[in-house]
Amino acid sequence: QQLPGGATARPALYPDEPGRRAFVLDAVDAEPAAAAEALGRDLARFGFVATPAVQRLARFYAVENTYLGLFQVLAGLALGLGCGGIGILLLSQVAGRRRELAVLRALGFDRNHVLGLLVAEHLTVLAAGLGVGLAAALVATGPLALDPETGFPALAFTATLLGTAAAGTAWTLVAARMALRSAPAAAVPSN
Fold it and tell me: Which tops the pLDDT comparison, 88 or 150?
């Protein structure tokens, strides 16, 4: 069906849509801007407003991007809380092992050696957790990585991984140093 401005209406593409609330127009033979202007001028009395498909889709994507941004913020907060929880867990675990650490010191291990043992133990657990999390993340984002049009957010992915590793390492060092602050004899019972 030919419309003013050289555009063609395609009502057969959407036969289930009752009424004429939206038109899908194809301005192949005419300049799209000129066709939209002519249609807007000729059909203004009917409330016709010409909107390019790109602008219409951009509005939909703006809503989608808002939700994605919100979920990214929530994921960041969850990651921060998780790192704090790991820190508290490490502090609690190391505090429960004060006697064991004191026995190691009493047997002749120097402070740096015991610190190295604690750090190596916790970093091994951290590396295993990061490995499992990385594998799960790669499975979840695999389709996104394979799609050349969307692009893979490698920078954000790497920053998150490095940030988590840095936070875990920092908490490990804090927990190990706090455990070795007290004198070894204070942790061993005298009786």
Answer: 88
